[in-house]
Amino acid sequence: MSDSGLASVFHFDETDLQFNRQGVLSPAQLQKYENMNKSCLQVSVVITLVFITLTIALGLLLKGEDRLGAMITLGVFSILSGLGTWFAWATRDDRYVLQQIEGEARLRTDSTENGRRYVVSISGYEFGVDPAQYEIVQDGVSYRIYYAVPEGQTKSLKTASKQIQSIERLA
After folding, report:
1. Is 89 a member of any domain?
2. Is the pLDDT higher at 9 or at 154?
3. 109-134: b or e for each residue (b if 16 or more CB lie within 10 Å)?
């Protein structure tokens, strides 16, 4: 059974933990990644549409040489934005692989340009966490962390982009 405090702060439930113990992401966790990919695509499409709209608006508002130069410039940005959206969509790697690590947790904070970074480290694997997650994990206590990495990053797990899916305290 999962620790309700850990589950609440790390946003997982008993079903997620059961799936993770079997070495797979739960349906809810898979849906989260699918939604994340859709959101990125939607933002890219909106940016492309903004460039196209600006191109048309400037074409209608400006006269003479200013008009042509502005339309060409924004037209190029529209095309590049559209190509960028297509490239991002075509090359996305939205498959994630579940991994696990267990061991004694070590807590650390780092000062960065943007403020403070909270880190939980287990056996040399570092996980960036938010302040509430940092507060609930106890330094020196053993945990098992189930985390997801993009499929293409599984060869270098220590440096891969890791997202905690669930965590359990070990006895």
Report:
1. no
2. 9
3. eeeeeeeeebebebeebbbebeeebb
